[in-house]
Design goal:
Layout (H helix, E strand, L loop, with lengths): L2 H17 L4 H18 L3 H9 L2 H6 L7 H11 L4 H9 L10 H19 L2 E2 H16 L8 E4 L1 H4 L4 E2 L2 E6 L6 H9 L4 E7 L2 E6 L4 E7 L4 H9 L2 H14 L10 H7 L15 H6 L15 E5 L10 H10 L4 E7 L11 H17 L4 E9 L10 H4 L4 E5 L8 H11 L7 E2 L17 H11 L2 E5 L9 H10 L3 E7 L7 H11 L13 H15 L1
Parallel strand pairs: 4-7, 8-9, 8-14, 9-10, 10-11, 11-12, 12-13, 13-14
Antiparallel strand pairs: 1-3, 2-4, 5-6, 6-7
The structure holds zinc ion (2 copies).
Length: 538
């Protein structure tokens, strides 16, 4: 790590510590210890742990020019804001300007800072890209003169990739002559400040800084163009070479996607699978494509933090929200006692929480609350409650929240050892990555997945859009090995329930079918899965 990189890392470390209210003295002490570690290994365990503790939205806010830790803390504490999107809204509606020591000028600078972050970043997280694409799609679809007959999302957003570069849409206009009108109207759409481009493809720049590529097409070419604008290069190349081999011309009309796939002897391929990973071969066989898991299959919500640890929602409110969302059961999983950040449950807290869950279950109808825990996997691979405490839970998620800097061999040994504990039901966020922020820790996933399959331990697809961990490529590998998965909302508020849709995208990209996902089982079947290893262990 060069000197500049070390300085940047130490600055970030200081900002995180200040965000947590640490004193200047403590900041200097931690920086001092981290400097030698960074020079020796290029990694700081203190920073890795802070990245785990600081809500990712606040870490993003720290990247806004001119917004230091003190101001971010003030914004979070007084306006309860923890995401760029919420901050942008507050900067626009006067709430930010009204804060002591802020004013309209600072609010405007924050708004501009967010825009420049978007421009500079190049890559954004899926949920940000989805929200932006959807807003643009609606704005364009709502053009009053109906010059756009149809506007659809395309590109990596439609494929539900974990991080997104370009935002891409397809817009259909009536006949070739109508293209000019459509281009003119696109340039006048709400928020568009600039339109550039050539025949058939334009780029819109929005006041927010967002760039969106729009492919312009006619109804008879829509099927082909939507497929081209959606698929990965490998998927599109595969289709083209198949067309050549079969002597099928792609210049005849394809008004929709299924008609093109059909012409090539293929079943329609769900967008999430269009990565060039064997989906065309599967689509050529009868029933060769998986029946992908979707929201209607989901009966249970897993990985929810309550106000017993670092969540904000009471047990009763979790139950009510899950019932309203159509779930049959919810697994509450607060942090265990040694989680490095606040709020891990001591033994008495566990007893108190279980009484409260019993009370809620006694009153509730139509929803069952299950007693889970997100237990830390300690450095030696043990779970940080003893068996007597673990026995009191219905199920256990085991996760790593500290000591990320181990070698691959040590880390693999640590996780494999945790899998020997018959209490472990689910391995939580298996690589610890934070997208665009922190690399996964070194671990031999092949060994971990093989053991999970053999021991019938579920592996989590953590649906927090900052994590999306396990990576979908390895989900696919786990599926081949026979691993059972869970989709973990990792929700700290009821708003976090929307994570499930993002996690489903990753599960689908990993080709998962309903019976490979624990959340699709009823509560009894889920509990049977959780107890099976304890019973076998006697
Ligand atoms: Zn966790
Ligand atoms: Zn969690």
């Amino acid at each position: 790590m060069d000197k500049q990189a070390v300085r940047r890392t130490l600055d970030q470390l200081a900002a995180f510590l200040e965000l947590q209210g640490e004193s200047a003295f403590r900041v200097r002490a931690v920086q001092h210890a981290a400097r030698s570690e960074l020079l020796a290994t290029g990694r700081s365990s203190a920073l890795d742990e802070l990245r785990e503790q600081v809500p990712p939205g606040l870490a993003e806010m720290l990247r806004i020019p001119g917004l230091g830790a003190a101001k971010v803390r003030q914004i979070h504490d007084s306006l309860a804001i923890a995401s760029l999107a919420d901050l942008e809204a507050a900067a626009g509606d006067g709430r930010l300007a009204a804060l002591p020591r802020f004013g309209t000028k600072t609010a405007e600078n924050v708004r501009r800072g967010i825009a420049s972050l978007r421009r500079a970043g190049g890559l954004r997280l899926f949920h940000h890209a989805w929200d932006e694409s959807e807003a643009v799609r609606r704005a364009l679809a709502g053009l009053e003169d109906r010059s756009a007959l149809r506007v659809e999302m395309a590109g990596a957003v439609r494929r539900r990739c974990e991080v997104i570069g370009a935002l891409e849409l397809v817009a259909v206009h009536a006949e070739p002559a109508a293209r000019e009108t459509l281009v003119r109207r696109l340039g006048q759409a709400p928020g568009v400040t600039e339109i550039t481009g050539r025949e058939g493809r334009v780029t819109l720049r929005f006041a927010s800084g967002t760039l969106v590529d729009v492919l312009l097409t006619t109804p008879d070419r829509f099927g082909l163009d939507w497929i081209r604008a959606t698929g990965s290069p490998a998927h599109v190349a595969g289709l083209e070479s198949r067309a050549r081999a079969m002597g099928v011309s792609l210049s005849v009309p394809f008004p929709d996607e299924p008609s093109l796939y059909r012409a090539l002897g293929l079943a329609w391929v769900p967008p999430e699978l269009r990565e060039g990973n064997g989906e065309l071969e599967a689509a050529a066989r009868d029933g060769g494509l998986p029946r992908l898991v979707d929201r209607s299959d989901m009966r249970g919500l897993l990985h929810c933090h309550s106000n017993y640890s670092d969540g904000t929602v009471s047990i009763a409110d979790w139950a009510a929200a899950c019932r309203a969302a159509g779930y049959e059961w919810v697994g509450i999983t607060d942090h265990s006692k040694s989680t490095p950040y606040g709020g891990g449950l001591g033994t008495e807290d566990v007893a108190r929480q279980h009484l409260e869950i019993d009370a809620v279950n006694a009153r509730a109808s139509g929803l069952r609350v299950l007693k889970g825990v997100e237990a830390d996997i300690l450095a030696d691979g043990t779970l940080d409650y003893g068996p007597d405490v673990l026995d009191r839970f219905d199920f256990v998620i085991g996760s790593i929240h500290a000591r990320f800097g181990m070698s691959e061999a040590e880390m693999t040994r640590r996780v494999l050892a945790a899998m020997d504990d018959p209490h472990l039901t689910i391995l939580g966020h298996p690589t610890g990555r934070l997208l665009l922020q922190r690399e996964p820790y070194a671990i031999d996933l092949e060994q971990v997945l093989a053991k999970a399959a053999a021991r019938v331990i579920a592996v989590e697809v953590n649906a927090d859009p900052h994590r999306l961990d396990l990576d979908w490529r390895m989900v696919r590998r786990g599926r081949e090995l026979g691993v059972t998965f869970s989709i973990g909302a990792d929700a700290h508020s009821t708003g976090g329930m929307t994570n499930v849709a993002v996690g489903l995208g990753i599960a689908r990209k990993g080709w998962l079918e309903p019976d490979q996902v624990l959340n699709t089982r009823d509560a009894e079947a889920f509990l049977t899965f959780a107890r099976a290893r304890l019973i076998a262990a006697g």
